[in-house]
Amino acid sequence: MGFLDKFEKTLENKVTGLFSKTFKSGLEPLEIASAIKQEMDAKASILSRDRILVPNSYLIQLSPQDFERLNDLGEPLIEELSKLASEHASKQRFQFGDLLDVSLSQEPSLALGQLSVVSSSKKLEIVWVPVLEVAGVPHTLVSAKTTVGRDSTADIQIGDNGLSRKHFEILWDGSSAVLRDLGSTNGVKVQGRKIDQVVLPTGTAFSAGRTDFLFNVIARAK
């Protein structure tokens, strides 16, 4: 099953309650979700191997008839479309430069069943920020060197007796990161293997002591 098929199947399962109404003609919500996904894929800007930026604003233009009917579904429709668009972006490792915004409008030139997706991004200066998730809790790394351990002198202190006082550090040069073990007792494991030092691409999961970590580089408006 292709990704689009999976995406549409997921959407069908999730909107069963919200969109139980069957439309005999005209546009259906599933088609809007697929169109947003296609527009996002088409407008993705590959900045590097692991950094892909996509528009954050999606204006869905509908025929007057479709707009009147779908707009009646109200905020739940927008919330569900936004949620699914965000999930798609996460799966594809896309990043938004600003908050995701999905909206509907009517376009008189469109016939019943037709739609147009107009995507855009605010003209903001984007900075890439390193973030370390510690057991699901994000910590923005603000220095060129960040130490992690159980001691209060570590930049990020974790109450895990399996960690050394200063267990490892992450070095950030503004564009790339390196994970370095600081001679810890129990070591640092990336993909199940102990490492001394390794480059950290965004999306890298690793463990130390009894704690799981996830490193990401995310886009933020400056």
Q: Topology of this structure?
A:
Layout: H1 3-14, H2 29-42, E1 45-48, E2 51-54, E3 57-62, H3 64-71, H4 75-91, E4 94-96, E5 101-106, E6 115-120, E7 126-134, E8 137-140, E9 145-149, E10 156-157, E11 168-172, E12 177-181, E13 188-190, E14 193-195, E15 197-199, E16 204-208, E17 211-221
Parallel strand pairs: 2-4, 3-5, 9-10
Antiparallel strand pairs: 1-2, 3-6, 7-8, 7-17, 9-11, 11-12, 12-15, 13-14, 13-16, 16-17
Helix pairs in contact: 2-4
N-to-C series of helices and strands: HHEEEHHEEEEEEEEEEEEEE
**What profile does the largest beta sheet have?**
6 strands, antiparallel
Q: pLDDT under 50 segments (min length 5)?
A: 1-8, 10-24
Q: Structural class of the helix and strand makeup?
A: alpha+beta
Strand order of the largest sheet: 8-7-17-16-13-14
Helix content: 10-25%
Multimer state? single chain
Proportion of residues in β-strands: 35-45%
**Tally of individual helices:** 4
InterPro entries: FHA_dom, FhaA_N, FhaA_N_sf, SMAD_FHA_dom_sf
Pfam families: FHA (PF00498), FhaA_N (PF12401)
